[in-house]
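From the shared-data thread, chain only:
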Amino acid sequence: MKEWQKFLLQIQGTWYYDKIMQAISKCQNNDIADLDIKKLSWSEDLRRIRVGKYRILIRKTAHGMEIINIGSREGFYEK
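Structure, as tokens:
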């Protein structure tokens, strides 16, 4: 199990869990128009989705989006 999957288990049942799952679903369906998504300046293929105090780090691939990490914003980019 990946670290971000463990993180999702920790917050399961919360409002943020639902919002994060909605954002992931929209990413998988390429419906990213209303997401708070930003290209990271230090990488060509990494994007960040902001969901309240949480961040989803994704990589743009030829097949769509791949989840790299999910976590709270404190120290998120230092991992």
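The longest strand covers residues 64-72.
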